[in-house]
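Tokens as discussed.
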């Protein structure tokens, strides 16, 4: 199970833990129980496991295990928006566990600490629902899904994107809304690999349908960094997974509307995990189950280097390598990848074919991907409805 955790095979880890938990020692029942519950966005359940583990067995944990426990507690408090406690465990990781992580992970923590220092006295994000909500969606000229919201006195269109780990906003809009902007010079890497600098701000309140979100945190970008002049295109900002998950359950009807129920339902499946702040979905491909990033904002499914490496000889000899441009924060970049003509993928027993799948032979980001790809709209929009329940860690298609 330790190897599954380190490789971030969360769905296989969950199945193994459920199968063997009654036979585990108290120490490892608490250890893996805490890690699994963190991965499946159950911080209220995970945190007591990990605190009891540290109190009873802390002296016998290896340095790697102590690092994993503090990382899980850090993410629990981060996901609960209890920033002062998240800062405490982020600092422990930086001060005590540099030797147990690679340089990229360590540098990410140093940057995360900038955010937490700025937010340590910020109240937790709060979501209030007055009733069920139906909200219209639309696609912009780049094929990305947008949603209408109210921020201050302004009605605005923002991207609606489960795949973004942080909501963001144009600097001019943040200033116009009277948001208090913290100057932290935080580096953000876009999908092109380009790095731009952002600040951070907190919105007192914003409204989506009958939902009010208070103390929502946004990255703040210079207007030019959210503009692609090559395409005469610009975005106001994005509502990302930290806000979406706080709604507990949403129903997406292709690209036409979203339903936000006042009362979430119970779902028995467990196929949505959280890798740091990134949602990961369990995808069936042939006889295997593979972790994919879950990105409702991505128009197309793509495969990452781990997928290429598991079948590289077949891919090299069967498919043609092509170049393409990708636009994101920081501009446009050219990539080379293979194009797989067609493949059947499944989620929670519902299957569909996706076509012309970009298959990357090298990492897209500086932090090499451990997931096998990214599940996009070319899969999800083949179904009438997609249900995302972060309360139950479930995604279903109908």
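Sequence:
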């Amino acid at each position: 199970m330790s190897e599954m955790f380190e490789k971030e095979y969360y769905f296989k880890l969950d199945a193994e833990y459920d199968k063997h938990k009654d036979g585990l020692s108290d120490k490892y029942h608490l250890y893996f129980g805490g890690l699994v519950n963190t991965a499946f966005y159950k911080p209220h359940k995970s945190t007591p496991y990990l605190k009891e583990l540290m109190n009873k067995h802390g002296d016998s944990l290896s340095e790697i295990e102590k690092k994993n426990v503090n990382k899980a507690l850090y993410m629990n408090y981060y996901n609960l928006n209890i920033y002062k406690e998240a800062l405490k465990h982020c600092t422990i990781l930086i001060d005590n566990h540099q030797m147990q992580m690679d340089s990229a992970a360590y540098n990410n923590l140093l940057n995360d600490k900038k955010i937490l220092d700025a937010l340590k006295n910020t109240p937790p994000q709060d979501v209030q629902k007055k009733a069920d909500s139906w909200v219209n969606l639309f696609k912009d000229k780049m094929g990305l899904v947008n949603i209408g919201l109210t921020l201050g006195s302004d009605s605005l269109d923002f991207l609606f994107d489960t795949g973004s780990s942080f909501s963001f906003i144009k600097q001019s809009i943040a200033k116009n809304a009277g948001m208090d902007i913290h100057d932290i010079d935080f580096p953000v890497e876009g999908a092109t690999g380009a790095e731009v600098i952002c600040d951070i701000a907190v919105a007192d309140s914003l409204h989506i349908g009958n939902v009010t979100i208070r103390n929502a945190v946004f990255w703040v970008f210079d207007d030019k960094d959210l503009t692609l002049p090559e395409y005469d295109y610009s975005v106001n900002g994005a509502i990302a997974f930290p806000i979406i998950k706080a709604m507990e359950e949403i129903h997406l009807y292709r690209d036409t509307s979203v339903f936000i129920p006042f009362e979430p339902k119970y779902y028995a499946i467990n196929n949505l995990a959280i890798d740091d702040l990134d949602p990961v979905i369990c995808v069936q491909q042939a006889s295997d189950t593979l972790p994919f990033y879950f990105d409702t904002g991505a128009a197309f499914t793509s495969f990452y280097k781990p997928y290429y490496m598991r079948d590289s000889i077949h891919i090299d000899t069967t498919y043609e390598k092509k170049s393409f441009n990708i636009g994101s924060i920081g501009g446009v970049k050219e990539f080379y990848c293979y194009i797989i003509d067609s493949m059947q993928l499944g989620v929670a027993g519902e299957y569909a074919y996706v076509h012309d799948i970009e298959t990357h032979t090298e990492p897209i980001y500086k932090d090499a991907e451990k997931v096998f790809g990214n599940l996009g709209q070319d899969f999800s929009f083949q179904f009438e409805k997609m249900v995302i329940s972060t309360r139950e860690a479930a995604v279903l298609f109908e």
